[in-house]
User: What shape does this take?
Amino acid sequence: MNKILEVSNLSKSYKDFSLKGINITLEKGYIMGFIGPNGSGKSTTIKLIMNLIKKNSGNIKIFGLDNEQNNIAIKERIGFVYDENHFYEELTVKEMKDVISPFYSRWDERIFNKYVKDFELPLNKEIKHLSKGMKMKFSLAIALSHQAELLIMDEPTSGLDPLIRSELLDVLQSLLQDENKSIFFSTHITSDLDKIADFITLINNGEIILSKTKDELLEEHCIVKGSKKQLNNDQGNFIGLKQNDFGFEALSKNKKEVIKQFGDSIMIEKPTLEDIMVFYTRRSDHHVSSH
Amino acid sequence: MYHLIKKDILMQKRALKLSILLIIFFTFTLSNIGPAGLTIGVLAITYQLALGASALEDKNNSDIILISLPIKRTTIVLSKYVSIYFYAAYAILGFYLAYLIINLLNLRLDIPFNFTGLIGAIIAVTLFCSISFPLIFKYGFLKAKMANLIIFFVFVFGGTGLVSYLSENNKLMLSQDLITFLKNRSDIEIFIILMVPLVLILICSYFVSLNFYRKREF
Assistant: This one.
């Protein structure tokens, strides 16, 4: 069984937003970056995976098990880090750990103490007096101390300074040396994923726009830059287009065709994940569908 | 379950200290109204602690953590119900200590610490939580706050009002029959007679709460 997470035809409707039958598959030993703009459905998907909300239809299988029927068995094997602190702020770090640890049958105090040392967590400080970075580190220490096979992270880096973000990413990278661990990491800060992600899934407006390996994604897309004069009516090769007084910038999935169309007069660059996300999801009149 | 109750107690360190002051305050102010004083005192302390725990839970939106941990929703709901008796025991112990100290010092205070007051306290606490908890499990503490406050005052004033109404109008057949019936029973018998419907109410309340909590989204 290599599929750690398998989401199929998952739907959830709210008054003003709906998740429209999404499909996601994450294999064992990989990090999947789940990207999309704010309000695109990332948190809703994670809440459904974690059973915090009820789905309307579809299936979620984790470790090959249905996530509703095997809720407890699955949660034993999951570590989670959320974007905000939901721990009890009135408790100290140690008290909170003492409350949580008995619920995990595979809790390893040694690993927790190692992270406490590495992260310099103040055990006797109330959680409300910790900085945002420290709260996230505490959350991560809890998530990593019970031999979780899947880490679910909902925007763990939002609001953190670059130093702590980089520290977190280093920890995640070192974790993946263990081939049994997988990470599902949602973020709108795509630069976090440049270093660590194996797969990228892009969601927008409750729909999965694409899901493939990061290398494939960066390889098959290109950024095209040129002057406005060069921009003719045929924009079929562009996924998204930005124009200003000086020229245009576009994302394309068809490098060869673009070169054929424009010749050497245009500049072709490698895109970043941010470019890909922005061009695929921008709410602009200049958006050109790739389909 | 033990760890969830411990968590509720730990996060209310300040409230527990405050409740000691409340126990002292109630010992002096409610000492002249007989056993009802003990009932009201225990109910007030339990109310403060049971709802205080829910308030802190709501403030941190910590249900998200509990649901994300390998904890059954039945355990979460049950631990809340069991915790009220821990709070009630704490309050009773507090009043008992106050009673002992006052007796030891021979102070001229008639502290109402007796079996009737204790039964009253357990009944009041059970009924109160049986009504309040389903609302909290459905809507969360903040949204259920006003309704719970109304319930609390209806309980305190309505309960004492009903007792005084019944005792003032003891010519009423019902109250007379009731009084005669109860007079002929021992405290233990009364306790058992009252416990059966009470336990039924508590069980119903638990299942309603559990049903609400299972459907609740975070």
Q: What stands out?
A: The radius of gyration of chain B is 19 Å. Chain B has a mean pLDDT of 83. Chain B has nine helices and no strands.
